Amino acid sequence: MPASFRSNEQDTPLPIFNFVKRLFKLPQPKPEAAVSVRIYPRSEHMISRSMISDNALKVLYRLKKSGYQAYLVGGCVRDLLLGREPKDFDVVTSAHPEEIRAIFRNCRLIGRRFRLAHVHFGEEIIEVATFRGLAGEESHGGRIIENGRILRDNVYGTIEEDAFRRDFTVNALYYNINDFSVVDYVGGMEDHKAGMLRLIGDPEQRYREDPVRMLRALRFSVKLGFTIHPSCADPIKRFSSLLQEIPPARLYEEVLKLFLSGYAVQTFEQLRHYGLFAALFPETERCLAKEQQGFPLTFLAKALERTDQRVQEGKPVAPYFLFAALLWEPVRAGAQARIKAGESDILAYQEAAGEVIARQVRHTALPRTVSLPAREVWALQPRFERIVGSRAFRLLTHPRFRAAYDFLLLRAETGEAEPSLAEWWTRFQQADEAERKAMTSPGRRRSGRSRSRKRKSRSESSANVSV
To answer: Is 90 a catalytic residue?
Structure first.
C-alpha cells in the first residue's frame, strides 16, 4: 500500500534514533553527526522551485499525488544550496521500483546493486530511487555483503533510514516539495555551511563497504572547495589498496568523473597526495616518482591543465586522449628502452603500448574505443620526425593526425620534444601545396645531420625527443 505523505515533520527524539540504530545495527556515526532531524523552512535556505528542473518537479508532484513521499536529494540539493546549477536532479521516494514504473509510462528500471527507476523526458533523465533501509546482517533479503563490501543493496526503508545510509552528510539533505523545506537528519546543513566533507558513520567501515567512497571524497572536496574531515581523510592512505577489489570497469567510469569535471589538475594532486593515483595508475606513478635530468616530469600535469581549459570552455574532451596522457610516461619509458636496445622507433612504441595497456586493464578497464585510438596517438609520435618526402603528406591525412599533433604540442611545451619540430608541423599544415613540397624536399631537412647520424644519436637525445 502507498505510504501516506506526512505534511508536518516532527523532530525525532534522540532515544528513538538510538533504538533504531541498535535495532538495525547501523554503523555508529560520529557524536557530532548524531543529531535529531532538523527542518529548515523556505525562509532559511535559498532553494526555489524556479531553480529546479520542470521535469523533476513533475516527478515529485506526481509521486505526491499518488500518495507517496517524494524528495529531491543528494548532489542537486547540495549544489542548489551553493547557488550552482546541478548536473542532474535525483528523486527519492517511498514508492518501490515497480510502483514507480506503474506511475510513469516513460520509466525504465535499471541496476542490480541497487534497483533504480529512470524517468525519461526526451534527453533529460530523472533518476528515482526508493528509500534505502538498514540491515546489519551479512545477507538480509536484497542485501548482500562480501568481505565488508556491499555487492547488492535492494533493502527498502524510511527516509530516516535512507539518510543514514548515504555517504556524506552534505549529500544527505532532502528538499521537501510539500512545504519547500530542507530536511536534515545527519547535520549536513551545518557541514555544508562550514565547507566540511564528512562521512556518515564510521569512516573505516564505510570505506570497506565501498572503497570508491575514497575517490568520491577527493572528487567532492576539490569540486566543492570543501575540507575533508580529519576522521575521513586519515584512513585513506592506509585503505588505498582496497581499490584493487573494485571491478576495473567501475574504476574506468570513476576516472572519467575525476578528470573530466573541470578540476583535473587539483584532483590529480590530491590523488597523488593520498596514494590513490598509484592504485589507479601504478606504472605512471612509478615513472612520475623519478626525475629526468634533475627535473620532474611535467607532461601529464600540462595535459590535465589543458583538459580543464577545454571543459571550462565547453569543449569536448575525448576519453582516449585523456588516457593517452595518463599512460604516456610508462609507454615512453618502455619504448625508449627498446630503442636503446636497437629496435626501430615505430615498432618500439607499438610494442610498448601493447604491454602497458595489457597491464593497465587490471586496474582500470579500457574499452576498445579508448585503447585503439590512444595507441594510434602514441604510434604517430615517432612518425612526426619523418619530414622528408611523401611521409609527411601521408601523416597529414591520418584520421588521428589532429589528436597526435596536439599531443606533440604538449610534449614540445614541456621540453620533451623539440619545439622546432612542433613549429615545423604547425607551418606545414598552414602552407600551400608548393610550400609544402619545398619544406619536405631532401635539401630542407630540419637539422643538418644525416639520417644515419640521427639514428646513432637518437638514444642520447631521447630525453628531449621521444623517438
So the answer is: yes
